[in-house]
């Protein structure tokens, strides 16, 4: 197990480097390039990874542009999530096949990419969601015997996630319209973006419709908790909260999906029922 964890940690760090490169270029509608600094100066090979750039003193470009802490953090988080997958798939009661474990490893990189882009740009990109959705359908087609969902459950889950969040998306427009009329000012932000609708659709495709129900409850709880932490933090820093400030919701959907993907058995045990499938 120790050897497997070390190997997957290395793979995770390298994958995190790829995630960083994609997070730099995809939101700018650019084709993926080799790693570069924020001023678009190409990074030397020793700085292709955020961790190596920081450790070897290659964080800054010749023009003075610095890599943010996002780069090493992304690589470390990706590695940790992939190590978590290896730990979970080794649990005999889950009976997870090697192929299913491979899909889960890829999902970890997708989750990190979606989260980084949403936090930095408040965007969830179709160029990420669509290939991920196709991958989830292939997963459901190839591995239903080892780990649900079946293809039918995945499709129902995807449709359910889309419909529920599409209603919330349109409800957000209605809410901001009414509040704008009441306040006598135009409000441009909405509670949910269309990217959140697509992320919920992807969540349903990955999990199936039954675990998606749990995921929605977890997402709402985490979103409320995150909003409270955000307000308290701003208050402690002496900053006022501006009404209708947009807060990325995608990371909460990602977190709920991750929990139900890897810990559905544990969640079910907490509620005294069999794992959702």
* Mean residue pLDDT: 86
Taken from the alpha-carbon principal axes, the silhouette is: globular
User: How much strand content do the residues show?
Assistant: under 5%
Q: Number of DSSP strands?
A: 0
Number of DSSP helices?
Answer: 9
How far apart the termini lie comes to 28 Å
Structural class: mainly alpha
How helix-rich are the residues, as a percent range?
55-70%
Low-confidence stretches: none
What Rg, in angstroms, do the CA atoms define? Answer: 20 Å
Largest sheet features = none
Number of discrete domains = 2
| Element string (H = helix, E = strand) | HHHHHHHHH
Structure summary:
With 277 residues, the protein is an all-alpha fold.
Question: Would you mind describing this structure in some detail?
Answer:
There is one protein chain. With 277 residues, the chain is mainly α. It folds into two domains: 1-90, no CATH class; 123-277, no CATH class. The chain contains nine helices and no strands. The chain has helices at 2-25, 50-55, 70-89, 98-121, 126-142, 151-183, 194-207, 209-236, 250-270. It is globular, with a radius of gyration of 20 Å. The relative contact order is 0.10. The model has no long low-confidence stretch (mean pLDDT 86).
Topology, element by element:
Blueprint: H1 2-25, H2 50-55, H3 70-89, H4 98-121, H5 126-142, H6 151-183, H7 194-207, H8 209-236, H9 250-270
Helix pairs in contact: 1-3, 1-4, 3-4, 4-5, 4-9, 5-6, 5-7, 6-7, 7-8, 7-9, 8-9
